[in-house]
Amino acid sequence: MAKTISPKDYFEVVLPTMLRWKGPAAAALGVNVRFVVTGKGGGTWTIRLRPPVAAVVAGSEWKADLGIRITIEEMRKILAGTFDARTAIGEGNIELSGDLAILKRVGFLFQSGGTQTDVRATAAGKS
Questions:
Q1: In this predicted structure, what is the pLDDT of residue 22?
Q2: Does the structure show a pLDDT above 90 at 108?
Q3: What b-and-e string marks burial along 20-34, b requiring 16 or more CB atoms within 10 Å of the CB?
Q4: What is the DSSP string of 75-102?
Q5: Which domains does the chain carry?
Q6: Segment 24-56, tens digit of pLDDT
Q7: Half-sphere exposure of 58 (CA within 13 A, CB side)
Q8: pTM for the complete prediction?
Q9: Buried b (16+ CB within 10 A) or exposed e, 45-74
Q10: Distance between CA atoms of 30 and 64, rounded to whole angstroms?
Q11: Residue of 59 and 111 predicted with greater confidence
Q12: Is the four-CA dihedral 52, 12, 22, 35 of positive or negative sign?
């Protein structure tokens, strides 16, 4: 069975590629979403879905309209497609702050995951 991608690979390779594919439509959303992934292998990333170009930056350089604080285990479940939001919230493994209505608009961020092989292939295809 293929190993699920790491949060670091997702935020630094896969998601930026998805945002390039979506082009102006992603930037037109006009919001910033910050992920704070806690635990070994986690980190902080801010997804800027604003013109002129949507992008991901490590850290918290931009003010976030929606903040998502999540454990590394739950983030791995999201990337593997086995995430249960109600359980995660109930167990305190995810905390949301800011404008929660944004969640519906940014669901596309997790519509496709990938394996380690997919990530390597995507990264190798970069010029």
A1: 87
A2: no
A3: eebeeebbebebbbb
A4: HHHHHHT---HHHHHHTTSEEEEE-TTH
A5: 7-108 (3.30.1050.10)
A6: 889 999 999 999 999 999 999 999 999 999 999
A7: 8
A8: 0.80
A9: bbbbbbeeebbbbeeeeeebbbbbebbbeb
A10: 11
A11: 59
A12: negative
